[in-house]
């Protein structure tokens, strides 16, 4: 009997260790529209952003229809550099393409706003790009620290 209890105790301890090691610290990823709504309603943007047509957003990022599975984008009306874009990609190659497009878009925006509205450039310099599994998020916010805190549970470092 003691031997059975000892074996069970060892198995229980082993199971607990495996459970602890398997925990990634990530919250389950919400649907893109739910994640976007959380960010849009959080007060991190200085103005209300307008949802962009996916074709326009793809054009702004230099993408084609084949480059993304799903695309959601909210943009400033032009007064600020603020934006929120969520991509859902199908594979590693697509994720790499999307990341390169996001980097290029932010660099282009920095150059554009440097002449047009230089006060917006710091927002672009603090832009957040996060990737997890098949989701890539680009967030240019008035409050990037709060934006990062909202994204951290879903995109841990």
Can you lay out the helices and strands and say which pair or pack?
Elements: H1 2-22, H2 32-40, E1 50-52, H3 54-60, E2 70-75, E3 83-88, H4 92-116, H5 121-125, E4 128-132, E5 135-140, H6 144-151
Antiparallel strand pairs: 1-2, 2-3, 3-5, 4-5
Biggest sheet: strands, sense, closure? Answer: 5 strands, antiparallel
Total strands? 5
- Morphology: globular
Uncertain regions: pLDDT < 50 for 5+ in a row?
1-23
Strand order of the largest sheet: 1-2-3-5-4
Quaternary class: single chain
Radius of gyration: 21 Å
* Fraction in helix: 40-55%
Chain-averaged pLDDT? 85
Q: What is the helix/strand order?
A: HHEHEEHHEEH
Count of individual helical segments = 6
SS-derived structural category: alpha+beta
Number of domains: 1
Task: Tell me the distance between the termini.
Answer: 47 Å
Strand % is: 15-25%
Structural account:
With 157 residues, the protein is an alpha+beta fold. It has one domain. 48% of the residues lie in helices and 17% in strands. The chain has a five-stranded antiparallel sheet with strand order 1-2-3-5-4, with helices on both faces. The termini are far apart. The N terminus is likely disordered.
């Amino acid at each position: 009997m003691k031997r059975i209890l000892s074996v069970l105790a060892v198995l229980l301890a082993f199971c607990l260790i495996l459970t602890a090691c398997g925990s990634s610290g990530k919250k389950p990823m919400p649907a893109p529209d739910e994640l976007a709504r959380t960010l849009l309603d959080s007060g991190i943007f200085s103005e209300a952003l307008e949802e962009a047509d996916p074709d326009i957003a793809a054009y702004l990022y230099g993408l084609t229809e084949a480059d993304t599975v799903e695309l959601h984008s909210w943009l400033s009306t032009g007064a600020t550099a603020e934006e929120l874009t969520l991509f859902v990609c199908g594979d590693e190659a697509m994720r790499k393409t999307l990341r390169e497009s996001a980097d290029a878009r932010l660099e282009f925006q920095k150059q554009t706003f440097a002449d047009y509205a230089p006060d917006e450039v710091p927002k672009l310099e603090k832009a957040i790009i996060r990737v997890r599994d098949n989701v890539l998020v680009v967030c240019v916010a008035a409050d990037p620290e709060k934006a990062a805190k909202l994204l951290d549970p879903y995109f841990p470092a």
